[in-house]
From TrEMBL:
Transmembrane segments: none annotated. This is DNA repair protein REV1. Residues 35-121 form the BRCT domain. Its cofactor is Mg(2+). Residues 689-720, 792-813 are annotated as: Disordered. It comes from Drosophila lebanonensis. Belongs to the DNA polymerase type-Y family.
Length: 987
């Protein structure tokens, strides 16, 4: 049994592994009191056979000088110390690390780590093996003797640089001579350490490093392209305006019609298949059908026998990484990645993209090349082709943009597309269109893509997973819950490692598990907001709108490779360079910043000084420091000086830095009317205009003929129709629900009846109820009871009293059988919270009536410039005369506001505030008028904008919320925004 074999030490790699680790730990603990220097820090030895000095003496030397003594040879043992070994033993050993004991003695004597090569017992190295050249001339070394030491090691930094430079040269040499599977051009230009003007751009100290880094960094290219396409979609939309899409006409003759009158919502998610590989294969058609990976590594033996820095310790690093991923970040995927991929001499180059043939062998995007080669030794690697990615990505976006610009760019090879409007206009079959589009993309790019379709973004993305590779799939709403049930939680949007861990700890692994538990339970685990989202998502409900015009929120420049400083000046020079880089990115997007953040990666205390990944960052602690400027800036000197100050504040020795990033956020737009209240300005302007034409004041005509604009007179609150009365009247009226329903279609119907009827229908829609935030839902349900009771009772009475007349009005009334409520749901809440709320309501009302709070209104915008309505009553002059929405010019102001490109939050809040005042004053008619007019303005906007839809919904929700809070019921509006993209968006 495996358990017996490993003596219960399975998780420690078996008994012997556990024993070896224990010995190491004991050695380290015992060394501490004797330590005099860290000369051998990060270096471990194993003594094989008789040596001079003896094994015991060597052990003591290691103790005193910070090294590690291995009682057994381990994969991460740096050197094997021996005098003479039998041939048969040597044949099975890695001879490149067998050295004479004299090396230890000499190092101690010279007080520095010497080149071990002269001490090698066997010198038959392979060409691809590391041949570390420690050989700088004594003169050179002495000339640099003032160089700061790295982490108390005796080797000077200059020496180290020399060593590294040599390693780089060796690496390049090895790469050129290696017999690898690599099919790229021999003069590989993908290495980040490629020579610049004949000199190796070694570390961030080199002035040429930064540009070289960005030229080669795949993550930089991906991020730049992704942000670029978000901007590109914005620009295309703005340039296109309301023009028709010429290419749509062609579709009609090419594709079949949809069956019936299909009004369903269709969102498409489209994603290129193994993007980087597909683009790369355009130049290597002979490799199609083979396992291929795009990576910086040359593959072949140079990926399984990589040079390792003598001071790197993969084993230690592996353990540290794995612990951090697992314990701190709950990221098992990355922990497994290091555990299985950090083997000695295996390439730590990442695979950016691999073909589906490689995936069939277990290889995945992001895997280390060394590990991938173990799974599939015949794996071929091809180099990056950043220009090709750009070209294909543009072709993809341009192809889709011929048909619609309702595109949410996700990345260079991925987007969401709202197809509903186009399909309805053309009456096309959705999957026929998707097939046509995919074919067109392939024809233009030579690369395959897959597409998923669903009624929202989540389902569309899920459908793409089914479709891949080179396919398409429609995930219907009916199949959604079932499909989702089998999905693991980490596939849901916004569910990261932390949340997955929490849910897993609670025994929840799949969306199916989640579907079975109550929302209250989820709320306890995750908090209200996350719980509500995940509760919907696990059922395939996704209320996120597509965002077409994405604004950049920040720009940044980060480097986490090659950061090896020895002096503060080097670090400062680099920070200046990086500041200039991020500044140029800021200028590119024509913005200014108010918030500067410096992010640094600092070598973790327990991490080896040198990293397993050559020039990588290794195990680090992250720090960040920010400064908020008084004024937005795009001045490079300001940015640079702030960055330098932030770095000083971090108080980190330069040699401990492993990564540096600068982020500029709180971006401003030149010409943007910042946080200034647009509405306020417009009202002031208009009131000025009106002062010039005083006669218009009392006879302000409605801006829109179809809207019946009540004169801004000031009838007493009591005389205005109260919705509670409306509701009561409605339920007391001698009309059934059906009557009310039929009235909704007649033009003569009063707002009161319509309100009541549509309220009935909207409030009892279980889907809408399910989408409401829990607290609002409870309130709605609580209120609903009163109305329902009267309606049900009335309907019953009606049906028995008036069966003859009602028979004429078939169909019979539809009672709310769809309601998910129990009888107890209809009882008024008796909870303490409800009673407190009730008391607050009463207080608020009486306060509002008593005070009319003029000072709040003034605080909010200084409306005293506006003229009071001509008929305002003297007893409520303050609030009523100051409320924006009771002014004669409110329509013009609203119209001007809606003409602006997007609503500012401050303005939306202002309108909310004004409407809440109207509620306090019982001006419900005015609220209806305002909302109707507002809604029509938004609908008639030339450029449809979901931001305005969202603003409208937010204001409407605020009204409902406040109504429920103060009066216990809501208002129902005749007009509504019906936008497929965002109508379900919750506020
Ligand atoms: N961490 C990442 C993520 C992505 N990419 C690059 C390589 C991918 O080819 C491309 C697109 O990313 P995808 O996640 O879409 O992956 P692929 O297109 O390679 O595969 P799939 O067919 O699964 O979409 O972006 C990368 O280099 N590193
Ligand atoms: Mg892809």
């Amino acid at each position: 049994m495996a358990h017996d074999e490993d003596n219960g030490f399975a998780e420690w790699g078996g008994y012997f592994e556990a024993k070896k680790s224990k010995l190491e730990e004991q050695f380290a603990a015992a060394s501490d009191p004797f330590r005099k220097s860290n000369l051998f820090a990060g270096i471990s030895i194993f003594v094989n056979g008789l040596t001079n000095p003896s094994a015991d003496e060597l052990k003591r030397i290691m103790m005193v000088h910070g090294g590690t003594y291995h009682h057994y040879e381990r994969p991460h043992t740096t050197f094997i110390i021996a005098s003479n070994l039998p041939d048969v033993k040597v044949r099975n050993m890695d001879t490149s690390k067998i050295i004479a004991a004299q090396w230890v003695v000499d190092c101690v004597q010279k007080e520095r780590v010497l080149d071990y090569k002269p001490y090698l017992l066997y010198t038959n190295q392979k060409t691809t093996q590391p041949r570390l050249n420690f050989g700088k001339s004594k003169k050179e070394k002495e000339a640099n003797s003032s160089t700061v030491t790295i982490c108390e090691q005796v080797a000077t930094t200059t020496q180290l640089e020399g060593q590294l430079g040599s390693i780089l040269k060796e690496l390049q040499q090895a790469a050129l001579t290696a017999t690898s599977n690599d099919v790229s051009k021999p003069a590989d230009n993908t290495s980040i350490n490629a020579t610049v003007n004949g000199n190796a751009a070694r570390t961030a100290v080199d002035p040429a490093f930064l540009s070289e880094f960005y030229k080669k960094s795949r993550l930089h290219h991906i991020a730049t392209l992704g942000a670029g396409f978000k901007q590109y979609v914005c620009e295309l939309r703005q340039a296109h305006g309301n023009k028709p899409f010429g290419k749509r006409a062609e579709l009609k003759s090419l594709l079949p019609d949809s069956l019936g009158n299909d009004t369903a919502r269709y969102v498409m998610h489209i994603d290129m298949d193994c993007f980087f590989v597909s683009v790369g294969l355009r130049n290597h058609p002979e490799l199609r059908g083979l396992p291929i990976a795009v990576t910086h590594s040359k593959g072949g033996s140079s990926a399984t026998d990589v040079p390792v820095h003598p001071q790197a310790n993969r084993q230690v690093e592996l353990e540290l990484f794995a612990q951090r991923f697992e314990q701190h970040q709950h990221d098992n995927i990355r922990a497994d990645k290091v555990r299985t991929g950090f083997e000695e001499k295996m390439s730590l180059s990442e695979i950016a993209s691999c073909s589906y043939e490689a995936r069939a062998k277990g290889i995945r995007n992001g895997m280390f090349v060394g590990q991938a080669l173990k799974l599939c030794p015949e794996l071929k690697t091809i180099p990056y082709d950043f220009e090709g990615y750009r070209e294909v990505a543009f072709a993809l976006y341009d192809t889709v943009a011929q048909y619609t610009l309702n595109i949410e760019a996700v990345s260079c090879d991925e987007m969401f597309v709202e197809l509903t409007d186009m399909l309805q206009e053309l009456q096309l079959d959705v999957m026929a269109f998707v097939g046509h589009l995919r074919q067109e993309v392939r024809g233009k790019t030579g690369c395959p893509c897959s597409a998923g379709v669903g009624s929202n973004k989540l389902l569309a993305r899920m459908a793409t997973k089914v479709a891949k590779p080179d396919g398409q799939h429609l995930l219907t709403t009916n199949d959604a819950a079932e499909y989702m049930a089998a999905t693991t939680l980490d596939a849901l949007p916004g569910v990261g490692h932390g949340m997955t861990y929490k849910l897993n700890q609670a025994g929840l692994r799949t969306c199916g598990d989640l579907q079975k538990i109550a929302i209250e339970q989820l709320e306890t685990l995750l908090g209200k907001k996350s719980a509500q989202t995940i509760y919907q998502n696990c059922r395939g409900i996704d209320l996120r709108p597509l965002v077409y015009e994405q604004q950049r929120k920040s720009v940044s420049a980060e480097v986490n490779y090659g950061i090896r400083f020895t002096k503060a000046e080097e670090c400062e020079t680099f920070l200046r360079q990086l500041s200039a880089e991020v500044h140029s990115r800021l200028l590119e997007i024509k913005r200014k910043t108010k918030h500067i953040t410096l992010k640094i990666m600092v070598r973790a205390a327990e991490a080896p000084v040198e990293t397993s990944k050559f020039m990588g960052h290794g195990v680090c602690d992250n720090q960040s420091k920010s400064v908020v400027l008084k004024q937005s800036t795009d001045d490079v000197n300001t940015i640079t000086s702030q960055v330098l100050i932030l770095m000083r504040q971090c108080e980190v020795p330069p040699n401990e830095l492993r990564g540096i990033g600068i982020q500029l956020s709180k971006l401003d737009e030149p010409g943007e009317e910042k946080k200034e209240n647009v509405i306020k300005k417009m009202f002031v302007k208009m009131s000025e205009k009106q002062r010039e034409k005083p006669t218009l004041l009392s006879t302000a005509a409605p801006a829109e003929p179809s809207t019946k604009m009540p004169a801004p007179e000031n009838p007493k609150a009591k005389s205005r129709p109260n919705v509670l009365d409306m509701l009561k009247n409605a339920s007391n009226k001698k009309s059934t629900v059906l009557e009310a329903k039929s009235q909704i279609e007649t033009k003569t119907e009063t707002p009161t009846t319509k309100a009541t009827t549509s309220m009935f229908h909207s409030q009892f829609d279980p889907e809408i109820l399910a989408q409401l935030p829990e607290d609002i839902r409870r309130e709605v349900l609580a209120h609903k009871e009163e109305y329902l009771r009267s309606e049900v009772g009335h309907a019953k009475r009606k049906s028995s009293d008036n069966s003859a007349s009602s028979a004429k009005r078939a169909p019979p009334p539809i009672l709310p059988i769809c309601s998910p409520l129990n009888a107890s749901d209809f009882l008024p809440s008796t909870s303490r919270a409800a009673l407190v709320k009730q008391q607050e309501r009463v207080q608020r009302k009486s306060y509002a009536h008593a005070n009319n709070t003029p000072q709040i209104v003034l605080d909010c915008g200084g409306w005293n410039e506006l003229e009071a309505p001509s008929k305002s009553a003297p007893d409520c002059v303050s609030a009523e005369s100051n409320n924006l929405l009771l002014q004669s010019n409110y329509k013009d102001a609203l119209a001007s506001w809606v003409e602006t490109e997007e609503p500012l939050t401050t303005d939306v809040k202002l309108i909310e505030f004004q409407i809440c005042e109207l509620i306090e004053m019982n001006h419900f008619d005015q609220i209806y008028e305002v909302m109707k007019y507002f809604c029509r303005l938004i609908k008639s906007k030339r450029r449809e904008s979901c931001l305005w839809h969202i603003a409208y919904n937010r204001i409407e929700n605020k009204i409902q919320h406040r109504m429920l809070e103060t009066l216990g019921y809501g208002l129902s509006f005749r007009e509504a925004i019906n936008c497929a993209n965002c109508s379900a968006y919750p506020q």
